[in-house]
Design brief:
Chain lengths: 219, 672
Amino acid sequence: MSPLVGQVINLFAAVLLLIAFAMLAQRRIVTLIHLFALQGLALVGSTTTVAFATGQHHLYWSAGITFALKVVILPLILHRLIRRLNVKWDIETLINIPTMMLVGILLVVFAFNLALPISQFSQSIARGTLGIAMACVLMSFLMMITRSKAVPQVIGFLAMENGLFFAATSATYGMPMVVELGIALDVLVGMVILGVFMFQIREQFDSLDIHHLEKLKED
Amino acid sequence: MAQIASLLAIDGALIVVAGWLAIGVAGLAALHNVRLVGRLLFPLSALLSVALAGIALLALPGTPQTAVLAIGLPDLPFHLRLDALSAFFLALLGLASAGISVFAGGYFRQGEGTPPGLLCMHYHLFLASMALVLLADDAYAYMVTWEMMALSSFFLVTTNHRIAEIRKAGYLYLLVAHVGAIAILLCFGVLQANTGDYTFANMRAQHLSPFWASCAFGLSLFGFGAKAGILPLHIWLPEAHPAAPSPVSALMSGVMLKTAVYGLIRVNFDLIATPLWWWGTIALGLGLATAIFGVVFAAAQVDMKRLLAYSSIENIGLIVVGLGLAIVFNAYRMDALAALALAASLYHCLNHALFKSLLFLGTGSVLHATHERSLGKLGGLMRFMPFVAWTTLVGVIASAGLPPSNGFVSEWLLLQSFLFTGELPNPYLRMLVPVFAAGVVLVAALAGYVMVKFFGVIFLGRPREEKLAQARDADGLERLGLAWLTAGCLLLGLFPVAVLEVIDPITVAMVGKGLAQSGHAGDWLMLAPVSAERASYSPLLFFLLTLSIVLVAFALVRRFYHGRVRRAAPWDCGFPMQTARMQDTAEGFGQPIRQIFEPFFRMRRELPSPFDSAPRYKVTVEDPMWAWVYLRIAAVTEAASRLVGLLQRGRISIYLLYSFVTLVALLSLTQL
């Protein structure tokens, strides 16, 4: 393995993490979707690099699927969704952005600390990036928690899946093809369901603000 | 011949069980055909019951037999075993269910909730599962059949499921049954002592430490107590018995409660090798409290089936008192006395199965003839239903524990065993146990009071309602069932020595000594459980003597005093306007008891004002256990669920935060 390949993988990992931070800080929904597509692209890059470096052919396939799904189809659906729902702004996060960035940094430290013993046992060339993958997962989760509108939450959910996928490639050269296909299908179906759900929420409350869901609570 | 019969006994019992199941399925095929179900299937099942009783009685003195059924989970077949104890309770099941099934054949009619065919299936599933409970020889088979028994009886209780109250009663029953089943399961878990082998044979081989043995005892008392109706867990009985059709009430009260007693004996005398003496005092105390509670509440009831349900609680209390005494004696290795107390309990089980079934069936006939359950609207039925009245009278005498009935024998034996507590080595027990004996006597006396009320208000006096004059006596199959149980009560009362000889192998197996073995019984006429000098009783002589005195007196009076019968209106005490409403009512009869035991009752009285044009007097007596135990449990549960409810904030962010925090916490745990 040439050091260049390792460097490239690390670069992609760094880009992923950077984008995760950017998503955490971003308020505009359209930009958020662009960032999500970009993250997908970085994931495709890293997967292809790993496939090239190790000669695992099935990773090409998963890179292809990732490209089709996360760079092309899902962003397109999301764009259509916000056009039809007519929401471009995510007005306010629940916690202000600098605080969230600080929490994000803490999460990254935590994730690296966590990944340390695991990556020692891994044989993968991308083992150093496991911490980044976990940080991505946790930060996307954080984004889901702190957004008050439905669309950014869905994007957070999808980004979390990106992190998971990256963790799988970096730790064990990807999951078996069947599992990967299953997850891809899951994400697609989940997207469709959530889209329907969002229309329902808007119809019910004339808004996509999930604060309104609090009315459903039983006293 | 007997050898062959005893060899095949367990197969015979299984054939009877299979026959019952087949009858149940046949009932399913003839769902709405009352005639077929009533005239053919139920009498057929009664024949099977008689066969089972015969097989069990033949097998009783023989050696235990085992069988393995190939049903169940892979590698976990049903182990079955027929020993003396199982055989005794199987005989009890057979004898009681024979009468009940015949009666049921004439009792169930179209248009009362569940269709008769389905009812027939539930009924026979219930019978079959009870037989299998008694045969089970591993915890797995026991629990499966135990649950089958609970579920099938639940469906029987909720036969008239369109009535909300009955659904509620059924739910309560199911709830208590399951709480009890959990305790029984845990009890078996303790008994197998971490060996992972749940057969009873393995449990017998374990030697538990006193702590774990006590745990097993406590769990068994709780679990089987829930089914039998020991004090705080009796709550379902007075609800479920009136809700169920009468043959079902009879079967539940007469037989199903005894399966719980069987479980108690099986665990505490057979599976646990070394009992501790203080278990016995707990059982004594709980049993006596249950008995007093049951009899006092029975005296205050105005619904005839509720009254009988409370009376069942009382009888179970007496049986548990006997078991407690047997445990105490057994712990101190006073085998002969333990045998006496245990035999008294078993005898009372058998008696209660017969006379309580008889009384419940009697109420069933009354219910069908009058459509009334409230004692306040019955009365004077002896004239219109003489057969039911006379058979019920036998049951009433037995239940009241009067000689020469069977109820007297078992209560007398129980009191006899109390008389020897002076020989106990523990001074506190010596002081305490006579108090229990006094309590048992009180219960016996009050039971007589309750039964006078039951019989007097229903059958004697004048009809309190006009429509009672149209009441028709039971006929055909119903009569046959009542007559069978009546004959059973009489025979058990008149030939106690024979019954004790049947019980003997059980006490030999459980506590190591029998009554006949110690050489005191054996004279077929005279029952002398300890020694002829101390006490002896001959019901047959007593009966004949009483009968001859009555006949002679009757003849003499007729001969020398009136010489002729003169019919005239009875003296009206100088008050010419008498109506049936002026008779002593059920409420009035129970009033002294209500007065004396007032602190135990939660009563609500509605008194009419002097100016009411239509005065109404109403008193409702509630079970205090609801307020003391159950409502408190409910309140604690509600408070706890409110605390859990605090977690529910209704905001997705918070919910996500929960999973996030959980995730981070679990991940940081991996660091440790």
